[in-house]
Amino acid sequence: MALTLEQLQAQRDKLVSDMGKTFSEISSDSDRLVRRSQADLEDALKRTDAEIARLQSSPSRQFTVQTSRGI
């Protein structure tokens, strides 16, 4: 399932806020810490930024001209 632009921007905000922490997620139901390295966070941020840029870019348009008598 593809994420919407708003979901991707929220994910990006979370990644940026997690970059300064020693842990990136605390699961309250099982009391565990999920550790992610800075390299993993930076890679995820790059992928998220690329997807946001892809969604924000305008689609390219191509026109073809066809004639029966020539140009």
Task: Please bin the fraction of helical residues.
Answer: 40-55%
Distance separating the two termini: 46 Å
Sheet having the most strands: 2 strands, antiparallel
Helical segment count: 2
Mean pLDDT: 81
Q: Tell me the series of helices and strands, N- to C-terminal.
A: HEEH
* Low-pLDDT stretches: none
- The proportion of residues in beta strands is 5-15%
User: What gyration radius follows from the Cα positions, in whole Å?
Assistant: 21 Å
What shape does the CA trace take? elongated
Strand order of the largest sheet: 1-2
- Overall structural class, as computed from helix and strand content, comes to mainly alpha
Number of strands: 2
Task: Please give a structural write-up.
The chain has helices at 5-18, 38-56, and strands at residues 25-27, 32-34. It is built from two helices and two strands, in the order αββα. Helix 1 (5-18) runs antiparallel to helix 2 (38-56). With 71 residues, it is mostly helical. Helices cover 46% and strands 8% of the residues. The longest helix is centred in the middle third of the chain and has 19 residues, at 38-56. Strands 1-2 form a two-stranded antiparallel ribbon. A hairpin with a 4-residue loop joins strand 1 (25-27) and strand 2. It starts with a helix and ends in a 15-residue tail after the last helix.
